Amino acid sequence: MKLAVLPGDGIGKEIVAQAVKVLEVLKREGAAIEMEYGNIGGAGYDAEGDPLPDTTLKLSKQADAVLLGAVGGPQYDKLDRPLRPERGLLRIRKELNLFANLRPALLYPELAGASSLKPEVVSGLDIMIVRELTGDVYFGQPRGIEIRNGERVGFNTMIYSESEVRRVAHVAFGIAMKRGKKLCSVEKANVLECSELWRDVVAEVAKDYLEVELSSLYVDNAAMQLVKNPKQFDVIVTGNIFGDILSDQASMLSGSIGMLPSASLDANNKGMYEPIHGSAPDIAGKDIANPLATILSVAMMYRYTFADMATADRIENAVKKVIARGFRTGDIWTEGTTRVSCSGMGDEVVAAL
Ligand code: IPM
Ligand code: MG
């Protein structure tokens, strides 16, 4: 199993180092894992003048899976747009054709108090958001800022082809089949043609999955329902921009953005795995970040790319055990629990493994 390891910026290095500790345990037990490091984001710009250096792209294309930390930092905000860290991330998604982004929002019972919503609204929460990741207004052409009638206008293009919708819909239905068999498609078909096509194509794909109960919601209503009664959802499938927004919202239902992993998959289950949180420059280098989302991303890697459910379960159970034993990084610490550092948390997971 060839792994490209791209720590990136900010807390990226610290959290990835903890996930690597877990991989090292599996390696010592005999797993054939090869890890090679590359630069991405600001780190790519600093070292090689490009947020996605050719060396990193090549390494990632040759790998079976990519483990990513986080990208971005205030020191890069003034760079030309194509040189900014986020562009490196968008380009690697596109270059590797990672069109299906899986973002679970799961509440650990012991952390119910961390949510800003009432415990009874979120207890037992277990949602999977499937976000299309390589299309939509993120990549649509034309785009730009130009002068029209003597003033500046900014414009982007929201666009989906039916094949793009179909392939992500298949992924979402497939996941729903393995879970609660409920899928909610989210769009804005009352206003946008792009969404109208999305809704129609998802309904066509539904004919292949008669066991799955399909519903659809406009994105504004979906945002409201997510806060009002989040447990009505099992799997949500949506486009790139709506998925970007709704997945941040869903992550906060669990109160602990530091706990949530993600997978971005291509058509052959090759994937890039990363925590959904950012590079948190304000706490970088202090050894206080929560590494659990990155460690749980390794579990997703085992589940989706390596199809090794036993190891995926084992890593997830180790994390559950560590939480149950009361160990907390600062972001999820509450009275009566034991505060640990980022590396301390990594050590606890290794011990629980
Ligand atoms: C995400 C992030 C990215 C996105 C940014 C950093 C480009 O917000 O992964 O959700 O908008 O996709
Ligand atoms: Mg986002």
Structure description:
The protein is of the alpha/beta class and 353 residues long. The chain has 2 domains: 1-99 and 267-353, 3-Layer(aba) Sandwich (Isopropylmalate Dehydrogenase), CATH 3.40.718.10; 102-265, Isopropylmalate Dehydrogenase (3-Layer(aba) Sandwich), CATH 3.40.718.10. Helix content is 41%, strand content 20%. It contains 12 helices and 14 strands. It has helices spanning 12-28, 42-48, 54-62, 85-95, 119-122, 162-178, 193-206, 219-228, 240-253, 292-304, 309-324, 342-352, and strands at residues 2-8, 34-37, 65-70, 100-106, 126-132, 144-148, 151-155, 182-187, 213-218, 235-238, 261-265, 271-275, 327-328, 338-339. It has a 10-stranded mixed beta sheet, sandwiched between helices. A hairpin with a 2-residue loop joins strand 6 (144-148) and strand 7 (151-155). The site of 3-isopropylmalic acid (IPM) has 4 residues, from helix 4.
CATH superfamily of the largest domain: Isopropylmalate Dehydrogenase
Strand percentage: 15-25%
Number of domains: 2
CATH-level-2 architecture of the largest domain:
3-Layer(aba) Sandwich
Order of adjacent strands in the largest pleated sheet: 2-1-3-12-11-4-5-10-8-9
What is the string of helix and strand elements?
EHEHHEHEHEEEHEHEHEHEEHHEEH
Alpha-beta classification: alpha/beta
The dominant shape is globular
Distance between the termini: 20 Å
Sheet of most strands? 10 strands, mixed
Low-confidence region ranges:
none
Task: Tell me the CATH topology of the largest domain.
Answer: Isopropylmalate Dehydrogenase
Q: Give me the Rg, rounded.
A: 20 Å
* Average pLDDT: 96
The total strand number stands at 14
